[in-house]
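// run 5 | inverse folding | seed 20
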């Protein structure tokens, strides 16, 4: 096909037709899978929610490790300067 296209042995319309046919064939499985979610959108939302929950769990653990490494707490701790300034009023 490449040689025929480069040498003008075939026309552009014919070449584009072959390319379009190849593209349609390549995306056909994707379109088939998409139909399942189009018919039941809740399936897609369930996948997104499960992924979000999994990511949240991993992120919480990562943040816990980062806080531990920095000696930080999740609890509010007033700074010594502010606590002293408020008690002197």
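// decoded
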């Amino acid at each position: 096909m490449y040689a025929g296209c480069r040498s003008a042995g075939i026309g552009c319309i014919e070449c584009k037709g072959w390319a379009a046919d190849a593209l349609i064939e390549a995306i056909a499985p994707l379109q088939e899978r998409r139909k399942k979610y189009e018919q039941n959108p809740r399936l897609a939302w369930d996948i997104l929610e499960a992924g979000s929950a999994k990511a949240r769990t991993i992120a919480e653990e990562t943040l816990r490790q980062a806080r531990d490494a920095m000696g930080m707490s999740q609890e509010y701790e007033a700074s010594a300067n502010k606590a002293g300034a408020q008690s002197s009023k």
